[in-house]
Amino acid sequence: QVHLQESGPGLVKPSETLSLTCAVSGVSMSRYYWNWIRQAPGKTLEWIGYLSHSGNTNYNPSLKSRVTMSVDTSKNQVSLNLTSVTGADAAVYYCATWSGSTIEYWGPGTQVSVSS
Amino acid sequence: DVVMTQSPDSLALSLGERATINCRSSQDVLERFNNKNYLAWYQQKPGQPPKLLIYWASTRGSGVPDRFSGSGSGTDFTLTISNLQAEDEAIYYCQQYYETPLTFGGGTKLEIK
To answer: Which has fewest Cβ within 10 Å: A11, A66, A82, A109?
Structure first.
């Protein structure tokens, strides 16, 4: 059974860097690409990007200058860094699988607030 | 970016009725070499992550009841939910994966009266 669990600080200060981790269990990291997707309160879903188990990445151009994703296959985890955060980055952040046709497995999401 | 536009924004229907949710993409998401539409539908309930319902525009995800069906091609797509049940109350999103960035529609909120 594929299980994803996001973790990270629930509160980040403006202009600082948001760092999140997604722990993956129940599946080999090579089976999927790994998405990060976010959802601001009352809004639709926004794709941040995905990466492969070998570290190949594809980022949303709207966030590309601020996003870094990485993978640690020894720990079965993927990470997201988002720099220079503002209030517009407050959202629930999801880690999810990507098969090329489906986003089938999602983590429960982690809420991130931005405030000084 | 491919813009996904859903309609209606919300609808309220009774148990047993049929719901029809529309999704239009700003460009064709049909790949002609394999004749596949790169379009998926998701269901999201409050406090939960989205759940995959339909991919390739009409293929049901694992364990999805056959009350849920997807249709359409090119730029116009429909999610139909027959014989509405109380547990179908949710927000429904379409998503294209024809190209990156992957993009989602604005969502349609379905209320069961």
So the answer is: A11
**Rg of the Cα atoms in chain A:** 13
Peptide bond into B101 cis (omega under 30): yes
Interface test with chain B among A102, A104, A111, by most B beta carbons within 10 Å: A102
Instruction: Give yes or no for B34 touching A (CB within 8 A).
Output: no
* A55: CB partners within 8 A, 6+ apart: A70, A71
Annotate B47-65 with b (16+ C-beta within 10 A) or e (fewer): eebbbbbbbbbbebbeebe
| Through-space distance between the first and last CA atoms of chain B, rounded to whole angstroms | 36
Indicate whether A71 pLDDT > 90.
yes
Residue B92 at interface with chain A, using a CB cutoff of 8 Å? no
Amino acid in position B70: G
Instruction: Assess whether pLDDT exceeds 90 at residue A16.
Output: yes
Interface test with A, best of B5, B91, B104, B108 (most A CBs within 10 A): B104
The sheet carrying A3-7 orders its strands as A3-7, A18-25, A77-82, A67-72
Q: How far is B14 from chain A (nearest CA, A)?
A: 24
Considering only CA atoms, which of A113, A116, A107 is closest in space to residue A7? Answer: A107
Residue B83 contacts residue B67 (beta carbons within 8 Å): yes
**What is residue A88's predicted lDDT score, i.e. its pLDDT?**
97
Copy the structure tokens of residue A96: 């999810």
> Is the Cβ of B97 closer than 8 Å to some Cβ of chain A?
yes
